[in-house]
From TrEMBL, chain A:
This is Uncharacterized protein. GO terms for molecular function: calcium ion binding. Gene3D superfamilies: EF-hand. It comes from Cirrhinus molitorella. It comes from the Eukaryota. One of its GO terms (cellular component) is contractile muscle fiber.
UniProtKB/TrEMBL annotation, chain B:
PANTHER family: SERINE/THREONINE-PROTEIN PHOSPHATASE 5-RELATED (PTHR45668), SERINE_THREONINE-PROTEIN PHOSPHATASE (PTHR45668:SF15). Residues 558-593, 642-677, 682-717 form the EF-hand domain. One of its GO terms (biological process) is detection of stimulus involved in sensory perception. This is Serine/threonine-protein phosphatase. Coiled coil: none annotated. The keyword Repeat applies. Residues 731-756, 768-801 have a biased composition (Polar residues). Its cofactor is Mn(2+). Keywords: Calcium, Hydrolase, Manganese, Metal-binding, Repeat. It catalyses: O-phospho-L-threonyl-[protein] + H2O = L-threonyl-[protein] + phosphate; O-phospho-L-seryl-[protein] + H2O = L-seryl-[protein] + phosphate.
Length: 193, 813
């Protein structure tokens, strides 16, 4: 097994509960930062209804009452609104903030909108088929199931790593008695949440 | 060099051996992204569900306050006819029994016999530890304590409480750790869980309980008896603070009165009366090591502990009844300070809780009888409320100033010695602030209009208060928190809530804390449920959300008439369509719940075309009912249903002897009162029909519970089918009893067979009888980090049938 290296960026653990500040990952090695996104050129083009919708959702995540949300909540709000950016993408949009900035810097609704628009405009959408295809990678025997254990290892070591608690929550009730997961059912199940 | 690239190629290398061309990395990222999205959506749903429950809870509280303001307004401005006088003045009159000896006779328990078949605890006084433990065990086994012992225990408690100061002072010397618990709200399971996990109170294990022991939960009296028993056994190690629900008027609405009357049919009234006194004698505040303040609600910018130490706390029986004036000649005559309360005759003065009265208008009123209330009064009522609303916008300085106006105008009106009244008004405000206030994140101190009492206080007020009194931390309760506790104001204020699953199974955890000599809180969180299998976090969110939405849809449905008018006002061309934004703002204008309607709309609206909603169809979907000729009756039904809590509260007020029955005449008057309050016509015919149909045994009395039962059974489907209320009453007679009667030891004469002993759920449904108790919620495996990010330990309790997952949070250093 290849030795694990530190993640390029600290990944904010996802909220299964309303903890405000996620624990930052250990300090990354100093990689070159990718170019930050320039938001000033983004034209916000949402309808009135959509704006109200987004404003309300934004308000739901504001726990302090100052009509702003912390940087580390931005990704979640976007996801709650139906977008699906990776953490890396969100980080770029936020200007590659440090862990401290992620926890403490705040953005208001007006500042959030161009960020959201940028994500909406970006072409990186995944469908149900993409997810199933993604999982099929791990289907060694080509029989529609993947080994739960393998899935766990992959999810915790590759990409934007998930921690054990997240993986447990994800996999709960999905493995059969042989430790196998039927991945089409898996995808359908979670997408229905 | 990015490690991602390395990894992919490494992984690629591994997979290439198997001949697989797709990078596993991409797959992993996809899954992770999509998982995180589902978690984020779950979080959003959890948050708005929480908002729904909270706003409905507070809206309900406001109703209560409005009702009292209204009744007091009537009281002061109208000369009731003799029948009306009886009705209204009961609310504001004190008891007739006044002397100590008479009280003792009234509360005498010695002539109550305990039958041999009674198998519950038989208490002997003074109580000892074993008896207290037996009591806990008995309640755990669903037994009920016989009313004789209840009265005896309460009497002893009363005697003890009268000797306690307003401010409990506790010390953590001898390396004692003090356990502190927040709101329990009649949830016996939570108390049992705390005792199981932490041990019962003892000399080595002191406890502080921070109020709100009763209401909402179904075992309020049991919780209270346990706490009092331990207080009697360990008076130096158990400390009880008063909460805003330790108040007999609040109990009328929120379930405690009902619970006691149904469990103790024969002696319930006496028990309630005794409790009324006991509540007023509960200490107000506890201070630990002169450094930590424990109070139920909070503080305001005028809170002064030295003043609080001096008040006669028992004079403030209820938050909704400000102090009465004392006639000076009598002040010194009676040793027992309670007597002069009772000796005051009718000149009861009322100040409303949040809105000071408008006195200039008062002189202009003609004396009217309640009979000719109708439109003239309704108009003036509007004006009155408008004035009060405007006054409520004042800052605190004019808030207290208007209190001065209140007291000075009153005193000029009748007896002298107004300065004394001023003092008691100040004291009353101090106590209200202690029991009703909430912290807020903005600076300043403003009246708490959401609750109708106390204030909202900001971080600088906390700083100032702590400095002035040389304290370091305020621990309070009063607000439900998702994780059982929450810090605010720069960790100087801690909210602690001990009733888990408060809104719904899985809605929140409860918590208690231990405080050692270092005064650093050590938290324990829990969720009390009977578990066989746990629900996953998404499942529990879904379940709670489902209940919240159901309640919300119900609210929308019963406000149909108002909503329809609002929509039609916008849809001037009468197209039947309305855009979502307008829909959302109209709903907010009608319901005032401050909820994210746009976010909620997919749950509430089945379809829209081009962003527009067909509202007639929407109403039909909500109700599945076709418009019918019974329109008038439908809206009356709707109104009564919507205001059933208020209706019930009025009933219970009217039922002054707490018998559970009211006469025809009172019933009639009650409905008229309600119609005046709502500014809506309930015709005499309808009232007569209702009266005839509700008196089932034809003895001229109406059983309150039975009448309200009709409402409990009026669920959406019945409203949908457009059944008239009358038909429902008739149907009700033939319905089977649905309640579980506890092992009743009260040997009371059998009531009419149709009188069910039940808990009627007020909206929003908390602890509804029909919520299945088999499902539970497991807190997520990843425990909540305490706010400063310190480590959390996860320890599972040894499984008893009654326990669920318990986690321990290691406090930050």
């Amino acid at each position: 097994m290849a030795p694990k290296k530190d993640a390029k960026k600290p990944e904010p653990p996802k909220k299964a509960e309303p903890a405000p500040a996620p624990a930052p990952a250990p300090a990354p090695e100093a990689p070159p930062k990718p170019a930050a996104v320039d938001l000033s050129g983004v034209k916000v083009d949402f309808s009135q209804d959509q704006m109200e919708d987004y404003r309300e959702a934004f308000g739901l995540f504001d726990r302090v009452g100052d009509s702003k949300v912390a940087y580390n909540q931005v990704a979640d709000i976007m996801r709650a609104l139906g977008q699906n950016p990776t953490n890396k993408e969100v980080s770029k949009i936020l200007g590659n903030p440090t862990a401290d900035e992620m926890a403490n810097k705040r953005v208001d609704f007006e500042g959030f909108l161009p960020m959201l628009q940028f994500v909406v405009n970006s072409p990186n959408k995944a469908t149900y088929e993409d997810y199933v295809e993604g999982l099929r990678v791990f289907d060694k025997e080509g029989n529609g199931t993947v080994m739960g254990a393998e899935l766990r290892i992959v999810l915790s070591t590759l990409g934007e790593k998930m921690n054990e608690a997240e993986i447990d929550a994800l996999m709960q009730g999905q493995e059969d008695e042989n430790g196998c997961v039927n991945y089409e059912a898996f995808v359908k199940h979670i997408m229905s949440v | 060099m990015g490690c991602g690239v390395t990894k992919t190629s490494e992984f690629n290398r591994r997979f290439d051996k198997d001949g697989n061309a797709i990078p596993a990395m991409k797959a992993a990222v996809l899954i992770q992204r999509w998982y995180r999205q589902s978690v984020a959506r779950m979080e959003m749903r959890r948050r708005y569900t929480w908002n729904i429950f909270q706003s409905m809870e507070y809206a309900d509280l406001q109703d209560q306050i409005k009702l009292y303001n209204f009744l007091g307004y009537l009281m002061d401005n109208f000369t009731p006819s003799s029948s009306e006088r009886k009705l209204i003045s009961h609310i504001f009159r004190e008891n007739e029994v006044c002397r100590d000896a008479e009280w003792e006779r009234y509360f005498n328990y010695t002539n109550i016999d305990v039958p041999d078949i009674y198998s519950g605890p038989r208490l002997t006084f003074p109580l000892d530890m074993d008896q207290a433990a037996d009591l806990v065990e008995a309640f755990k086994n669903k037994q009920q304590l016989h009313s004789r012992y209840v009265l005896q225990l309460l009497l002893e408690t009363w005697k003890l409480l009268r000797m306690l100061p307003n401010i409990n002072r506790v010390s953590t010397c001898h390396s004692k750790e003090i356990t502190i618990c927040g709101d329990l709200h009649g949830q016996l399971e939570d108390l049992l869980l705390i005792f199981y996990k932490n041990g019962m109170p003892s000399m080595e294990k002191p406890y502080v309980f921070n109020g709100d022991y009763v209401d909402r939960g179904k075992d309020s009296i049991e919780v209270l008896l346990i706490l009092f028993a331990f207080l009697l056994v360990y008076p130096g190690d158990v400390y009880l603070n008063r909460g805003n629900h330790e108040d007999h008027i609040i109990n009328l609405r929120y379930g405690f009165t009902k619970e006691v009357l149904s469990k103790y049919k024969l002696h319930g009234k006496r028990i309630l009366k005794l409790l009324q006194k006991i509540f007023s004698w509960l200490p107000l505040v506890t201070v630990i090591d002169q450094r930590v303040l424990i109070v139920h609600g909070g503080i305001s910018d005028t809170t002064d502990l030295s003043l609080i130490a001096r008040v006669d706390r028992h004079r403030y029986v209820s938050a909704l009844r400000p102090p009465k004036k004392k006639t000076p000649s009598r002040t010194n005559v009676y040793a027992d300070s309670e007597r002069y309360d009772e000796m005051i005759i009718c000149k009861n003065r009322r100040g409303s809780l949040t809105f000071p009265k408008q006195f200039s208008a008062r002189e202009g009123f003609q004396r009217r009888s309640l009979q000719d209330f109708s439109s003239t009064v309704a108009r003036t009522l509007e004006e009155e409320f408008e004035v009060r609303r405007r006054q409520a916008e004042y800052s605190l300085s004019s808030y207290s100033k208007s209190h001065r106006i209140l007291s000075s105008t009153l005193s000029s009106d009748s007896e002298p010695d107004s300065s004394e009244f001023d003092t008691s008004n100040d004291e009353w405000k101090q106590i209200l602030d202690l029991l009703w206030s909430d912290p807020m994140s903005h600076d300043g101190c403003i009246p708490n209009e959401v609750r109708g009492g106390g204030c909202y206080w900001g971080p600088s007020v906390t700083e100032d208060f702590l400095n002035r009194h040389n304290l370091q931390l305020i621990i309070r309760s009063h607000e439900c928190k998702q994780d059982g506790y929450e810090f605010c104001h720069n960790r100087k204020v801690l909210t602690l809530f001990s009733a888990s699953n408060y809104y719904e199974v899985g809605s929140n955890r409860g918590a208690f804390i231990r405080l050692g000599p270092d005064l650093v809180p050590y938290f324990v969180q829990y969720q009390a449920t009977r578990t066989t299998r746990g629900l996953s976090f998404p499942q529990s969110v879904k379940r709670t959300e489902h209940t919240a939405l159901k309640v919300l849809r119900e609210q929308l449905f019963v406000h149909k008439s108002d909503l329809l008018s609002a929509f039609q006002a916008i849809d001037k061309e009468n197209t039947g369509l309305i855009c979502l934004t307008d829909w959302a703002s109209a709903i907010e204008r009608v319901l005032h719940l401050d909820l994210p309607w746009q976010v909620l709309h997919p749950q509430l609206v089945s379809s829209t075309t081009d962003g527009k909603l067909d509202y007639h169809r929407w109403f039909r979907d909500l109700a599945l009912k076709k418009p019918s000729s019974e329109h008038i009756e439908q809206s009356m039904l709707e109104t009564l249903y919507r205001h059933r809590s208020t209706l019930e509260t009025i009933f219970r007020i009217v039922d002054t002897d707490n018998s559970g029955f009211i006469t025809f005449e009172d019933f009639r008057q009650t409905l008229k009162l309600l119609s005046a309050y709502l500014k809506m016509e309930i015709s005499d015919e309808v009232i007569n029909e209702l009266v005839i149909n509700t008196d089932t045994n034809n003895d001229g009395n109406i059983d309150i519970d039975e009448f309200m039962e009709a409402f409990r059974l009026v669920d959406k489907s019945r409203l949908e089918r457009g059944k008239s209320l009358l038909k429902l009453m008739q149907d009700n007679q033939s319905l089977p009893q649905e309640t579980e009667t506890p092992q009743t030891v009260d040997s009371s004469p059998p009531q009419t067979s149709q009188c069910p002993a039940l808990q009627i759920s007020d909206p929003p449904a908390l602890n509804t009888a029909d919520s299945p108790s088999s499902q539970t919620a497991n807190p997520p495996a990843s425990q909540t980090a305490s706010p400063s990010g310190s480590n959390t330990e996860d320890c599972s309790a040894s499984q008893t049938e009654d326990l669920c997952h318990i986690s321990v949070v290691v406090p930050p250093q």
